[in-house]
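Annex B. Sample input.
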Amino acid sequence: MTSEVNATPSAPADIVGASKPERWSGIVLVLLIAAAFAMVIGRVVQVASGPPPPRSGTVAPAFAGPSLDQGTTTRLEDLRGKVVVLDFWATWCPPCVASMPTLDRIHKELGPRGVVVLGLNQEPGQETMVRAFMRDEGLSLPVVMDSGSIAASYGVFSFPTSFVLGKDGVVRAVHHGPPSEATLRAEIESALAETGP
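Annex B, continued. Sample output.
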């Protein structure tokens, strides 16, 4: 009496079943990477097809945008005669968040001397969340909610990006990434010392 032996053992059920979730997680990961890449490319195309970013010595592009304070509009032209720091930021950007206390301190300390630090937030439709962030962090600098059109007109493609404008509305300095407090204060003091409108 002979017994037959199966020469090819079957794979355990748990190994066969494990391959499907792994395959799906791999597909999801690839799709997420592709979506992130598409967003980056879209932003680059938007910036590349827009006007060139203003450089030091050029007049800053005019804009008007909704203030985080409901019902008001902030216009750059209304700030003529003041030194203005424009800071493009978002709450999801760690370097932006880290630089906010410095910007707020400069706004509070130098505001009486004719300095305005204006945050241009890049999270339209998230006003409630941005208000909560400002309240929780104890920040009081004015914020404009940018739909992306202001950032595009300034050629902004990374955050934070900031511009120091003289009293005449001319760009005095541009920073990609957070500038040091000492650098920013020196640029502001230089702009304050200039005669202007």
